[in-house]
Every structure is written in structure tokens, then in C-alpha cells.
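thread: overnight batch results

M.L. [08:02]
morning all. the overnight job finished for the chain we discussed friday. pasting input first so we're all looking at the same thing
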Amino acid sequence: MIFLSHNFKDGDIFGQENVFYDSWSIQPGDGIIDKMNDGLTQCKLFFFFVSNNSLNSEMVKSVLMMTINLVRDVKNSHIKNIQLQGY
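M.L. [08:03]
and the structure it wrote out:
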């Protein structure tokens, strides 16, 4: 489980409509890469959960590289990358 501590005034930020999570955000028939790109370009915070599984996943590596490239682009400089250490 991930617990995000926040002030109640900001609670709507963490609703499903404001969080990109593959099980919530990608529906059967959707283009996975297109949906991920949409989510990445709309995000303000990018949480990268570091674990042995994520470090060995080609998909996670691809998403991380897409995010790094987006952040380097001046028009997307509003994206903040936050790394979370797994176990």
C-alpha cells in the first residue's frame, strides 16, 4: 500500500481522476503507450518506485526514459520527479 499524506484541502488531487495508475487509467482496447504519454504530459509529480522489480522491468525503464525526456523539455519543466525506495 502507498500512503500519501496530504492536507484535506488538497484531497481532490489524489482522486482517481487526478492520478495515473495503469489499472485505473488504461482500459481494454486503449493504446498503452498513448495513454502513458497522455498521463506523463499531464502530470505535475512523477513518483518512481525503486525496487528490484522496477529496475529489471523494460516497461518501467521506458517510462522513466520518457519522463526524463519530458522533464528536459522546457515546456514540461513543471514535472517534479520523486523517487521512492522499495524493499
